[in-house]
Specification:
Elements (H helix, E strand, L loop, with lengths): L1 E4 L3 E7 L14 E7 L1 H11 L4 E8 L2 H12 L2 E2 L3 E4 L5 E7 L5 E6 L8 H5 L2 H5 L3 E4 L5 H13 L3 E4 L9 H6 L2 E2 L3 H8 L6 H13 L5 E4 L5 E5 L2 E5 L12 H14 L4 H15 L12 H11 L9
Parallel strand pairs: 1-4, 1-9, 2-7, 4-5, 4-6, 9-10, 10-11
Antiparallel strand pairs: 2-3, 7-8, 12-13, 13-14
Amino acid sequence: MITVLGSMNLDVVARVERYPSHGETKLGKGVEMLAGGKGANQAIACGRLGKDVSLIGCAGRDPFGDRLIHSLQKNGVNSEFVKITERASTGTVLVTVDDTAENTMIVIKGANEMLTTQDIDACIGLIRSSSVLLVQMEVPHEVVLYAMTEARKHGVYIILDPAPAEGVTLDMLGFADLITPNKQETKHFTGIDVTDEASAAAAARQLADAGVKNSIIKMAEQGSLIYADGKCTRVKGIRVEAVDTVGAGDSFAGALAVALDDGATITEAVEFATAVSALKVTRSGAQDGIPTRDELDEFCKSRNLTLYNNRP
């Protein structure tokens, strides 16, 4: 069983030809209001890929919160451990997506900030019975660290998606069994600008010196570099026609947790997660675009991809 600790947000997504310059007004192509949040997205990735998964999070007592809870439930996520608060409105993200499918975001944390260590105490039984705990940084630092500490006591495998990187501290890195920074987050931690396999390997070794056991340096279209057991392994990206990159990293993280929960090796898990996130970016919506297992199998067949879960 997988437990995800993280944020729940309503994504207000505006589509434009190009981003406006400072002070400039641009006409958009359309706007959508979609369920999102890194925690919810990652939990839904696990659910759509067939896993027993629960989310620990917090939403406001408002129509947006109701909508997010419904999205969890319809995608197979246990919402029993989602706290509802009247002290803040549901988290909201203002997203702009341009014609290259790249995005910018403004995050208003809202109810996500209301999650406390006492809420984690109420979920200790869930965490202890999980095989994997997946966390990110859109909820309070002390809550994430406390959950990781408790999970470590009980031998739960901990994956840290260190986004946004500003909330991550070195003590937190030491509690994770695996971290998954992208290029920008890697530079934040190491000062190394990841441009190729060699620079990614240098950054991974620096993270290892800081106490990180295993890392996956995500390099966008260049794929990923895995650092595990003192060795580096490259997993190439899958070339697709991108439509919407919002939630791509979350689908990667959720798929990674799914594969590791299945007993896959880290390399097999990254190959699986790479295929899931590649298919996701060809579809719109941080949650609606996440593929199911059947959709992933069809994608793999069309690309002659062999993954651990569909080997004969």
